[in-house]
Specification:
Layout: H1 37-64, H2 70-78, H3 97-110, H4 112-132, H5 135-146, E1 152-155, H6 165-168, E2 172-176, E3 179-189, E4 197-204, E5 210-216, E6 222-226, E7 239-249, H7 261-296, E8 298-299, E9 302-303, H8 308-336, H9 342-367, H10 378-390, H11 395-407
Parallel strand pairs: 1-4, 2-4
Antiparallel strand pairs: 2-3, 3-7, 4-5, 6-7, 8-9
Pfam families: Acyl-CoA_dh_1 (PF00441), Acyl-CoA_dh_M (PF02770), Acyl-CoA_dh_N (PF02771)
Protein name: Acyl-CoA dehydrogenase family protein
InterPro entries: ACX4-like, Acyl-CoA_DH_CS, Acyl-CoA_Oxase/DH_mid-dom, Acyl-CoA_Oxase/DH_mid-dom_sf, AcylCo_DH-like_C, AcylCo_DH/oxidase_C, AcylCoA_DH/ox_N, AcylCoA_DH/ox_N_sf
């Protein structure tokens, strides 16, 4: 490929301020002041890692649609995966949902895909074992998952079942002596291409209950194929999973908790809250990159940050970030107080994801044509937001959950 002459004008290279001793520029109302000193120290340690090891590799990984596997060890060294369950060095109690939310926002601020990887493992997979497993099953799997020696995935969604998967699940589980036989198909299963275990949800043919099963990746009859050609969250390794006569022992059935899909429902309530924090972090990253770009990019002899219409875009973005952050904070506080509901988490996800979609579009608009190339970062957030907008409950489904809560009437079609 021909090389351009050295005097060809270089494009501005906006960057996030990831200095560990400074707060995020987008936290305009200083919500991070609600964290304790120890929580703040952990957040700053994470920010340092994100700046040194994650930010430099994500654009290339996004373009190649690959997951940088070295990040697994990096996150393991941070000892964060066990926080929701009180696991890890010197821990005896679970971390606050508020603190966990800020961690997710911080990761998504740098890259939404990496945050999805972390959330799938620590929230969906570990959460399923914690909520649905017996104490023996928790001790068998969670410590190694907390150390990230065992990586998990969460197999719920099916090719013909997304929003209605709980009621219309086609994957089946049949008891055969001391084993269960699983048959069916799963789709959009994040982390699945490299996960060590996949929590598969299947309908018990005898009771019609949906149950969870921990399936090791090398189990005979389970085929995992990466989904290619994605235009969003390209770093996340989503896969199709085919289950054909897959046999697992009875002690791999999550038999604590209720032993049914209600356990997964409780996990999804918390991870839906985490998804709102991911939407907040994505907005923060897009806003901060747009601001950095506006301060560097000159037109008509001055930085575009000095033009009224550019400032209007920046203020609209900042307003969205601040409102979304406020809702995510309050939802986390309610969850910490034991007062959080499905409707609270649904409204937080719907609102934050909708505002995120506006914010990343405005960031792309401010950056202009340069916003569709990876070199300026904004394009990655703009693309990834489309996937974040839909997962952990679409806008429509979350709207119906909240609508039922405020009116007392269910508008779900059955």
């Amino acid at each position: 490929m021909p090389e351009l002459p050295s005097d060809f004008p270089a494009l501005p290279r906006p960057a996030l301020d990831l200095a560990p001793d400074r707060d995020a520029v987008a936290d305009f109302f200083d919500y991070a002041d609600l964290l304790t000193d120890d929580e703040t120290a952990t957040l700053r340690r994470l920010r340092s890692y994100l700046g040194e090891d994650v930010a430099p590799v994500v654009e290339n990984a996004w373009e190649r649609a690959e997951f940088p596997m070295q990040l697994v060890k990096g996150f393991a060294d941070l000892d964060l995966a066990g926080l929701p369950y009180g696991l890890g060095e010197g821990r005896t109690e679970p971390a606050r949902r508020l603190f966990l939310g800020f961690l997710h926002a911080e990761i998504a601020r740098v890259d939404p895909s990496v945050n999805s990887f972390f959330g799938i493992h620590t929230g969906l997979a570990m959460g399923s074992v914690h909520a649905g497993g017996t104490e023996e099953q928790r001790q068998r799997w969670l410590p190694s998952m907390a150390r990230m020696e065992t990586i998990g995935a969460f197999g719920l969604t099916e090719p013909d079942g997304g929003s209605d998967v709980a009621g219309g699940m086609r994957t089946t589980a049949r008891r055969d002596g001391d084993e269960w036989v699983l048959d069916g198909d799963k789709r959009w299963i994040g982390n699945a291409t490299f996960a060590d275990i996949v929590v598969i949800w299947a309908r018990d043919l005898e009771t019609n209950e949906v149950r969870g099963f921990v399936v090791p990746r090398d189990t005979e009859g389970m085929t995992i194929a990466k989904i290619e050609g994605k235009t969003a969250l390209r770093i996340v390794q989503n896969a199709d999973i085919a289950l054909r006569g897959v046999r697992v022992p009875d002690d791999h059935r999550l038999s604590g908790g209720t032993g049914t899909f209600d356990d997964a429902g409780g996990v999804l309530r918390l991870t839906r809250g985490n998804a709102s924090w991911g939407a907040v972090g994505t907005q923060m990253g897009a806003y901060e990159l747009a601001l950095s770009y506006a301060l560097q990019r000159e037109q008509f002899g001055r930085p575009i940050a000095g033009f009224q219409l550019m400032q209007e875009l920046l203020v609209q973005m900042l307003g969205n970030v601040t409102a979304s952050l406020g809702m995510a904070v309050r939802n986390a506080q309610l969850l910490d107080a034991g007062r959080g509901s499905d409707a609270h988490s649904a409204l937080a996800k719907e609102f934050c994801a909708s505002r995120m979609r506006e914010t990343v579009a405005w960031a792309r608009q401010l950056v202009g044509g340069n916003g569709v190339i990876l070199g300026n970062g904004v394009g990655r957030y703009f693309a990834d937001a489309e996937a974040l907008y839909s997962f952990e409950g679409t806008r429509e489904m979350n709207t119906l959950i909240v609508g039922k809560a405020v009116t007392g009437h269910s508008a779900f079609v059955r």
